[in-house]
Amino acid sequence: MTQLLDKVAIVTGAASGFGAEIARAYVREGAKVVLADINYDGAQLLAHELGSAASAVICDVTSATDVKAAVKHCVDRFGVPDIIVNNAGTTHRNQPMLDVDEATFDRMYAINVKSIYHMTRAVLPLMRERNAQQKDRGGVMLNIGSVAGIRPRPGLTWYNSSKGAVNMLSKSMAVELAPDRIRVHAICPVMGATGLLEQFMGVPDTPENRARFIATIPLGRMCEGADVANVAVFLATDASHFLTGMEVPVDGGRII
Question: Which of 38, 118, 145, 176 is least surrounded, with the fewest CB atoms within 10 Å of its CB?
Fold first, then answer.
């Protein structure tokens, strides 16, 4: 399968969870991928698994310096990226909104929202310059939002709002960057069995507690990495060249 042959991608938060599955899918489809993660050991393990088409770089997405360094690493290793996946994210524990302290709020917004600001400032000038020289090139930015920003759950108010920001800024970016032939989408998964699951639920991760949340998803299961990766592949391919500004729920019907 070569739907992304000769494409270059950066995936943040790529060492595990949805990011790792997106990276695996991109490499299977012929792309070269930079795995940017604060968990450098995890990113290196995945790069070793994926072979010469992948390269790991340590990156704290809240740091403009780290993000610029990750983009430079990509340019030096594979070239100017065609695809950016802003996947790194975090949450606060499911709890009353006044119980979330300011430091947790600030950290969450820095990872979920400001990281996209840093990445855009680092990569957009390079993509614009490349696109001006190569009229057949464009670009794609995929921001991992959440159905929490569309249909919020109680107890996650500040997280919900951060993902609502991601969803909306993706649409605004899509309008502004369309003349540059850069398409932007928000991919919005429902809850998945990732390292953040227990924080999302706010209760121990037991089969009984999972069942309570699964009961709110019409298709009867949580989101899996492959579900998000399949959408991330399609939106990065030329087959979706006339799509931009979409808020794509990967949610088994949760928002219906």
Answer: 176
| Residue 60: band (very low, low, confident or very high) from pLDDT cuts 50, 70, 90 | very high
Q: Helices 225-236 and 17-28 sit at what angle, rounded to 10 degrees?
A: 50
**Catalytic residue ranges:** 159
DSSP letter for 152, please.
Answer: P
Among 87, 71, 173, which residue's Cα sits nearest to residue 122?
Answer: 71
Pairing of strands 54-58, 8-12: unpaired
Residue 159 C-beta-side C-alpha neighbours within 13 Å: 25
Predicted model pTM = 0.94
pLDDT digits (tens, 9 = 90+) for 227-240: 999 999 999 999 99
| pLDDT tens profile 114-125 | 999 999 999 999
The DSSP 8-state label assigned to residue 114 in this structure reads: I
Polymer length in residues for the chain: 256
CA 62 to chain centre: 14
Range list of β-strands (E), 14-152: 32-37, 54-58, 83-86, 139-144
- SS3 state at 50: helix
CA trace torsion 217, 187, 167, 136 (10° rounding): -160
